[in-house]
Specification:
Blueprint lengths: L1 E7 L2 E7 L5 E7 L2 E8 L4 H11 L9 E7 L4 E6 L10 E2 L7 E2 L18 H14 L1 H6 L3 E6 L4 E7 L2 H15 L7 E4 L5 H9 L4 E4 L5 H10 L2 E7 L2 E4 L11 H4 L5
Parallel strand pairs: 3-6, 11-12, 12-13
Antiparallel strand pairs: 1-2, 3-4, 5-6, 7-8, 9-10, 9-11, 13-14
Helix pairs in contact: 1-4, 5-6
Length: 260
């Protein structure tokens, strides 16, 4: 809790409120420092696994020999069952906590089949579920939430000061719990950038839904990968930026909408 002074209706008051916790975390892989990121110290082990998987450092849990997280020191120590040659190139992403990636491959992902469908009302229901489950957001605001859904309920929920970190936690927890992400729906409260879309493609989620907007590069990638991107899910409406033909009950042929 933090003590603040609040001004409202012409007067001041002093009160204690919860504030989002932020911590620096350094990840070591096979004894070598790989990256330092800012994060919310919740589900840190999931975030580390998700980050390593997204970056192609590991292909599965069987490549993890040891994973120790030391919250007080802000260190995660990962030992792999294989040798690891770190890439030299680092890319600073558009993440809200200065995210870093070591490679931004936008090729090699298989296109999604058109069979995956979604009723428009599901988008509103799932976003309401996400906010209902976002405990840290309700307490302090200033934090992002993400979720994996089967279209009816939320399977996994994660929160972090960084929207990329929240997706890393979702992917990492899915690996730990043996939950397949392919064919499911990815939800986020944050902006969908190209690297966020790439993570959705990596997880094989044909729908990426957010309460805010995607970037132009994210839309281009979504059209190429066959991912339906839905943004600005607010009130009674939303925007569909790519592949609207998946939305039921009115398919693209009947609505006269462009297929991508």
């Amino acid at each position: 809790m933090h003590r603040i002074v609040r001004y409202r209706a012409g007067s001041f008051e002093t009160l204690d409120i919860p504030v989002v916790e932020e911590q620096s975390l350094t990840i070591f892989v096979n004894g070598r420092e790989r990256v330092t990121m800012l994060c919310t110290p919740v589900k840190v082990d999931c975030m580390v696994l998700g980050f390593l998987s997204f970056e192609g450092i590991i292909q599965g849990l069987d490549e993890i020999k040891m994973l120790d997280v030391f919250p007080e020191e802000g260190v995660a120590d990962v030992r792999l069952t294989k040798a690891f040659t770190p890439p030299r190139r680092r890319i600073f992403t558009s993440g809200c906590t200065g995210g870093i990636t070591f490679g931004m491959p936008m090729e090699g992902f298989k296109a999604f089949p058109e069979e995956a469908t979604l009723h428009p009302e599901q988008a509103f229901d799932l976003m309401r579920q996400l906010y209902a489950e976002a405990r840290l957001y309700r307490e302090s605001r200033g934090i992002h939430a993400a979720a994996l859904s089967d279209g009816k309920k939320l399977l996994l929920v994660a929160e972090d000061v960084g929207r990329h970190n929240a997706l890393d936690k979702i992917h990492g927890e899915a690996l730990l719990r043996g939950i397949a992400t392919a064919g499911h729906i990815l939800l986020s409260t944050g902006r969908i950038s190209s690297e966020m879309l790439r993570k959705g493609a990596h997880m094989r989620t044909p729908f990426v839904i957010s309460r805010t907007s995607p970037t132009s590069l994210a839309i281009q990638a979504a059209k190429r990968f066959g991912i339906t991107v839905i943004g600005y899910v607010r009130g009674e409406g939303f925007n569909v930026y790519s592949h609207p033909e998946r939305l039921l009950p009115q398919r693209v042929e009947a609505a006269g909408l462009p297929r991508s």
